[in-house]
């Protein structure tokens, strides 16, 4: 396996601990992996991916890093912080609520406060566009990159959410981190987390393939073909790991908790946030981890989730201040 360069951004391993009150409530042995406590730029799992991506960008002599996403993107916030650490300009094409097929019929998060405030403090160059499709947003991001290149700047492009083979590799490593925190005779039956652009799920699925642990992503995107995107990402990761890629059918994805759409809080998600706060004193976010925990609750109620469970808290807490 080739050596993957990394910079140091996060504090790892992140804590793993049992949720005693919710375990009793739900009849599960429920644990939480605290990537909200990565210790970098207000926490979140994106810092793991950025350790590999920033190393690659620095090796390539990047002066500007360009990405895209929703305006309240957790990834853009952490990318902006990582760029600040290494003296690189961060630029991002953003929409309030990008969509795949048609615009949502309800409002999403606010266009200020939350991550937007933090982006501004970090000096992120936000290029704001009217809501449109993800494909339109990707084209806008390329326009941003080309505008910097026209000024003679060396640009490094990062896809939405940091979902690249390097990002997936970071979560393959995160899975190994979790394996090192548990006793060999007490593996988890399930790992459950919010799944969106794919690198988290692809990395964990590669790490736990061939074990008794089932890896389940609770989708934040209403795109049934998303597993095909995961399979493509797996091919890039598998090449780096020197092992066969996964196929679309290898990915367990639950779409029941998407709610009104990507980037829009749901009633089930908000109820789950309140429950976690009032039972365990832990804050989830309305776009990813809140919906993911709502999935845990629904699956447990239907007896489709049982045994020893690890709920992976991927972070995103600043978006609570943009509801």
Structure description:
The chain has 323 residues and is of the alpha/beta class. It has two domains: 16-44 and 163-322, Rossmann fold, CATH 3.40.50; 46-162, Rossmann fold (3-Layer(aba) Sandwich), CATH 3.40.50. It contains ten helices and ten strands. The chain has a six-stranded mixed β-sheet with strand order 1-2-10-7-8-9, with helices on both faces. A four-stranded parallel β-sheet has the order 5-4-3-6, sandwiched between helices. Helix 7 (199-208) packs across helix 8. It starts with 15 loop residues before the first strand and ends in a 10-residue tail after the last strand. The mean pLDDT is 96.
Share of β-strand residues: 15-25%
Please tell me the total number of domains.
Answer: 2
Work out the radius of gyration.
Answer: 19 Å
Taking the sheet with the most strands, its summary is:
6 strands, mixed
Kindly report how far apart the N and C termini lie.
44 Å
Q: Give me the number of helical elements.
A: 10
Which helices and strands occur, and which strands form pairs?
Layout: E1 16-18, H1 20-26, E2 29-34, H2 46-59, E3 64-70, H3 74-86, E4 89-95, H4 114-122, E5 125-129, H5 134-150, E6 155-157, H6 165-181, E7 190-195, H7 199-208, E8 214-219, H8 226-241, E9 252-254, H9 267-280, H10 289-301, E10 308-313
Parallel strand pairs: 2-10, 3-4, 3-6, 4-5, 7-8, 7-10, 8-9
Antiparallel strand pairs: 1-2
Structure described in brief:
The protein is of the alpha/beta class. The chain has helices at residues 20-26, 46-59, 74-86, 114-122, 134-150, 165-181, 199-208, 226-241, 267-280, 289-301; strands spanning 16-18, 29-34, 64-70, 89-95, 125-129, 155-157, 190-195, 214-219, 252-254, 308-313.
């Amino acid at each position: 396996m080739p050596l993957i360069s990394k910079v140091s951004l996060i504090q790892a391993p992140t804590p793993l601990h049992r949720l005693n009150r919710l375990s009793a409530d739900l009849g599960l042995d429920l644990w939480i992996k605290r990537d909200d406590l990565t210790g970098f730029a207000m926490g979140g799992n994106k810092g793991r991916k950025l350790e590999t991506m920033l190393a690659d960008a620095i090796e390539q002599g990047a002066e500007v890093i360009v990405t895209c996403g929703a305006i309240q993107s957790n990834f853009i916030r952490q990318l902006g912080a990582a760029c600040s650490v290494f003296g690189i300009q961060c630029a991002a094409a953003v929409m309030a609520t990008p969509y795949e097929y048609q615009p949502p019929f309800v409002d999403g998060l606010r266009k200020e406060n939350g991550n937007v405030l933090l982006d501004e403090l970090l000096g992120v160059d936000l290029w704001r566009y009217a809501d449109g499709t993800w494909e339109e947003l990707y084209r806008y991001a390329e326009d941003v990159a080309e505008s910097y290149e026209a000024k003679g700047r060396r640009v490094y492009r990062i896809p939405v959410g940091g979902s690249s083979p390097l990002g997936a590799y970071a979560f393959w490593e995160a899975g190994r981190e979790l394996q090192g925190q548990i006793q060999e005779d007490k593996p988890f039956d399930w790992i459950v987390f919010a799944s969106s652009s794919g690198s988290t799920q692809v990395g964990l699925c590669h790490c736990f393939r061939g074990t008794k642990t089932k890896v389940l992503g609770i989708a934040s995107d209403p795109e049934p073909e998303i597993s095909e995107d995961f399979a493509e990402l797996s091919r890039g990761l598998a090449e780096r790991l020197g092992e066969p890629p996964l196929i679309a059918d290898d990915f367990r994805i639950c779409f029941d908790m998407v709610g009104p759409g990507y980037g829009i809080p749901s009633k089930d998600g908000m109820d789950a946030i309140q429950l976690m706060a009032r039972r365990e004193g832990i804050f989830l976010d309305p776009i990813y981890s809140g919906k993911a925990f709502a999935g845990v609750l629904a699956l447990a109620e239907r007896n489709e989730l049982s045994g020893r469970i690890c709920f992976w808290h991927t972070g995103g807490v600043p978006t609570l201040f943009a509801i």
